[in-house]
Each structure stands twice: as C-alpha cells, then as structure tokens.
Amino acid sequence: MERKHSLISQCVRTKTINNVMKKSPLSLENIVAKTNVKLGGLNYNIILENYPIDPNVLFIGLGMNHPAGGMADPDGPRVTSVSVLGFSANDGILPNEFIGNFFFQPMSRDENVGVLDTLLVEVLERFKLNRKCAPSRVIFYRSGCSEGAYGSVLRYEIPIIDAVVKKYAPSAPITVIIPSKMHSFRFFKKNINASDRSDDQNIRPGSVIDGVVVNNSYAEFFLNSHLAIQGTAKTPKYTIIYSTEKDASLDMFERWTNALCYDFQIVTSPTSLPAPVYIANRYAERGRQIYNTFPNSAKINKTTGRNKK
Q1: Separation between Cα atoms, residue 102 and residue 85, nearest integer Å
Q2: I need a surface site. Which of 29, 47, 150, 242 has the fewest CB within 10 A?
Q3: 42-308: which CATH number, 3.30.420.10, 3.40.190.10, 3.40.50.1110, 3.30.70.1560?
Q4: Which InterPro entries does the UniProt entry name for this protein (predicted)?
C-alpha cells in the first residue's frame, strides 16, 4: 500500500488489538507513537545540559543487509544476490527528525557502498532545502563494516564523503564512526548479586569504556546505552576511523552517541545503537523483505545501485 500508492498505513495484528481492548496502555501507546511518526510528527525531544547538540549538526546513519543465500534471477537462469543499503539522517525541518530510505546494489566481496555519492547528495540537498543552511558539522555512523574492511573504507569511501560534503558544506568538519557488535568483549559489574534480576546484574545504560581494551590505532570507545533484560549485555564498540574535527573531544562523541540512543521515537527506552544507525538498519531490513517478496519490482541500476520503480 505504502510503496505502490504512497498511502500511509499502520498494520495492527489481531493479538495486538486484543491487548488494547484489555486496556493495555503500553500497546496503545506504541501504536499511537508509530502512527504519529509515520504522519511526520515527533513524540519527544532530546536536551543535553552538558555538550548540547548544535541543531545544525547533520547525523547520517548507514546499515547494510546482505543476503543469506542466492536468489533466482527472473531474467535468466543464473543466481544473483543483492545487498540492501538502508540509511537515515536528521535532514528534516526539525533537528531530531530522521528521514530515511533504502537502496539496492549488487553484492560484492568487499563491503564498500556503491551508492554513497548518490545517498550523500540526496541527504545534503534535503538538509539545505529544509534548514535553509549548510550543516555545521557532519557525523557519519557507518554500520555493517568489519574491522578488516577499515582500510577499504578509508581508501574508497572517505574520499567520496569528503568531496560531496565539501561541495555542500565547505567548512563543516567530518567524522566517520564505525559502530559494531562484531566483537567478543563482554563487560560486567565488579560486584554482582546473583539473586538480582538480569537487568540489575548488567552494567547500567550510559556506561562507557574508552581505555585499556580499546584499539590504540584509532579513537575508540564501548558504549552500553541499552538495558539488557535477559542474558549478558552485548556492548557496541564505536571506532572513529576518520575525523577533521579540531576542537571536539572524545567525551563529546560519547555523550552525543548516547543521547541519540534515546531518539528512536517509537519507544521511550534507549536502543542499543544510536537512532540514525538503528533506523537505517530497519530500512535495510524493510528493503530486504520487499526484495524477497517482490524481486521484479526492484530492478538494480548496475551503475548507481539505486532501486528503480
């Protein structure tokens, strides 16, 4: 309905309706929050007393979804696969309004984003249209990248980011951060009461580790923003692989990243990843579901990778 006719819809299962009829306030609040966001509204705002976020900072999140296996090509007998690139950015009228979409691109062995220039142009043009100014700084959360691919990102993607951003915002400093859960580190409280619940045994939301276990080659920190209610919390790692900032501190990036984990809008609890990345991953998942269900509706442009309708 939404993709074909551009009509906003909200799918509600019978089980959910039954919960609402039984006077479940949480279910009803969730439906209202989702619908409000779909209609262009915001449910709450983020205010930081220390290190307040400049309203003209552009946050961009990128998430990748790779296929588990090949899919039959409807135009021929060979098997093809596509990667789905989801993205989101606060390029709307309001500073914490994240807008996103997804692209299809041919899957390759490397993890580079083939549509990066197209994506950045779209985001920066929409930012200038809605805000009537250029971004004061650009912070790019580039998810879906393994540590072994850092060199490839630095060689191929950073020059594209630099070139496009300088065209639209020549004086804006650029920072590229790689969030990742693909590591084996686990963090625990020093003193744990075995009789406590799992969420009380885990480290608290907002916990930061930026020494001893971090990479010496890059500015890096671990941030546990979410509340794990079952099992041991898997704390994401954030690696700043590139930055042209001169005055920013690591503490600022840590605080801003943590604040963005409270900006998902649909729920009031913090997410494990900052909103631009979390939303980008959701768009990538949506694109994968659409492609798997309607592969003929999304032809891939071999040059740009953009999905054509």
Answers
A1: 5
A2: 47
A3: 3.30.420.10
A4: Piwi, RNaseH-like_sf, RNaseH_sf
